Inverse folding.
């Protein structure tokens, strides 16, 4: 699943590559991916990309959809014509960029492509989703907060306002395992399964530790691990084209996805706990005092 660092990399790439371009094509191939109807998807055609930004794991393309009213002041005129293409890649989605957009016709129901967007310089991108469970979401809205998932987001952990004390307040009284807290988008925006594993490993903390029971020293250690892990990952993602982001993510992982390998810190074997269609990874020596974690508690761990 793309998480904050990869989504930030995609956002920066789109901001640099697509800003100033005009959309000439917007074709939905998977109608279930389109979550809105007003404005219609056709409103994207003719709109100019102003900027790209990120909200948690959502990408937001800000668009100028028409000529401003000459009788209005600049700010209100742009507000009348501003729309946003907001998308969430879910677990198996990705953005495939083309310097020259393929001319092939996409056939709904027979392709992994959910949305194709083309620009006036001939470039463009597809939003694709692998597998049979389709969760990728595309919205065309007048304001990002019109997307329910964006409206529910907690604070971004890399924003300057997200201090250690803010973090401590979010944890206070939560008798929930810390792995689940880190993944809950309504508490902290942008962290998913992979980076929560990495953060907890860097903080030398069990994923089963209860948030409410953490000492002040443990909160500080976890806060610093979160900021440093995410900052390093964002730096690794920045400047890379979309095609390179997934491999860069995998190479940067210390424990996530590395079951059976040696922990890079202590050399112990990285272990997994399996649940549903996913897993978490941890190092027993670094994180749990050598104790192996049981699966029976996972039903309360992840939302």
């Amino acid at each position: 699943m793309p998480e904050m660092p990869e989504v930030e990399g995609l956002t920066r790439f789109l901001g640099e590559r697509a800003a100033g371009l005009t959309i000439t094509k917007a074709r939905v191939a998977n109608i279930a991916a389109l979550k809105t109807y007003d404005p219609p998807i056709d409103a994207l055609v003719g709109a100019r990309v102003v900027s790209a930004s990120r909200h948690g794991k959502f990408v937001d393309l800000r668009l100028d959809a028409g000529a401003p009213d000459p009788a209005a002041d600049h700010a209100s005129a742009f507000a009348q014509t501003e729309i946003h293409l907001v998308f969430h890649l879910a677990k198996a989605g990705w953005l495939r960029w083309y310097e020259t957009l393929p001319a092939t016709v996409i056939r709904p129901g027979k392709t992994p492509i959910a949305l194709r967007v083309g620009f006036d310089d001939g470039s463009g991108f597809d939003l694709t989703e692998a597998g049979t469970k389709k969760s990728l979401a595309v919205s065309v809205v007048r304001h990002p907060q019109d997307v329910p998932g964006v409206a529910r987001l907690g604070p971004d952990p890399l924003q300057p306002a997200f201090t250690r004390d803010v973090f401590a307040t979010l944890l206070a009284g939560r008798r929930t395992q810390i792995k689940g807290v880190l993944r809950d988008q309504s508490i902290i925006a942008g962290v998913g399964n992979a980076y929560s594993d990495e953060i907890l490993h860097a903080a030398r903390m069990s994923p089963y530790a209860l948030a409410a029971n953490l000492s002040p020293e443990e909160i500080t250690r976890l806060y610093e691990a979160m900021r440093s892990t995410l900052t390093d990952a964002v730096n690794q993602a920045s400047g890379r084209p979309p095609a390179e982001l997934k491999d860069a993510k995998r190479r940067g992982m210390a424990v996530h996805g590395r079951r059976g390998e040696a922990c890079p810190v202590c050399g112990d074997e990285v272990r997994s706990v399996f649940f549903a269609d996913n897993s978490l990874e941890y190092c027993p020596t670094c994180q749990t005092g050598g104790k192996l974690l049981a699966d029976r508690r996972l039903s309360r761990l992840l939302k």
